[in-house]
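Reply to dn_fold:

You asked what the input looked like. This is it:
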Amino acid sequence: MSASSLFDKPQNERVYRGWGLTISAQEEKERLLQSTTLYVGNLSFHTTEEQIYELFRRAGPIRRIIMGLNKATLLPCGFCFVEYVNRQSAEFCQRYLNETCLDDRIIRIDHDVGFSEGRQYGRGKKTGGQIRDEFREEIDPGRLLPVIVPPPNLVPVPPPYPPPSNQLSSSNSTDNKIEL
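and this is what came back:
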């Protein structure tokens, strides 16, 4: 796939357009043609960076992975950016790993203009996650926020205070033994 073919897609295919870009469409096109960064969407909220690395390293050497985070909770929210060392690896990955299954979900991979600070946060106004999840009507178990419940024995129950009178004992001043 040539880099110019990224822009020659039929109208029914989508091209990911990053939010908050303050560059012209021409500059965006030029950046996309040279970028080594991919946007990966439709991830499970439970997918780890290690799982992403294990799958995506098959396409070539990875420079870094930036997990998408919910702005409010700082938990993963279903997307990430994968930055490769070279353009060839990014193109290979997009071509062969797009629409594959990761963590029981069909992921989508698009070329991206490059990561910049702030883009790792979800854009959802209500939840801080992804906008599409705020309008979902069906329950998607792979995109539910994990509920963290501490185990019941995490906080020890303090003994009653003061101790019951039958547990008090007198001690001899010469002997530090406690008699019960």
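The chain is about 20% helix and 15% strand.
Hope that clears it up.
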